[in-house]
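Supplementary Note 3. Input sequence used for the single-chain structure prediction.
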Amino acid sequence: MVLWGDLAFSHAVLLQTDPADGAALDIPPTEVVLTFNEQVQITQLQVLDNSGDPVHRGEIERMGETGQIALAPDLPKG
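The predicted structure, written as discrete structure tokens, is reproduced below.
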């Protein structure tokens, strides 16, 4: 017996970030939010400054297609 079926290989696509990519902000953000086209399993998320040092604090919060992480409260402008 031979069975044929449709194989679905899907990959989550990043739809939106907040702050938006390339955004120029007057004040530093308090968090980063990532929105995907489907539910994802985010196992690690790091937010780094220009020197490569982490500026996030705490763990990733997951809500369906969205993941968010809080940022350090004393981020410099820029």
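Residues 11 and 47 are 22 Å apart (CA to CA). Strands lie at 14-18, 31-36, 56-63, 66-71.
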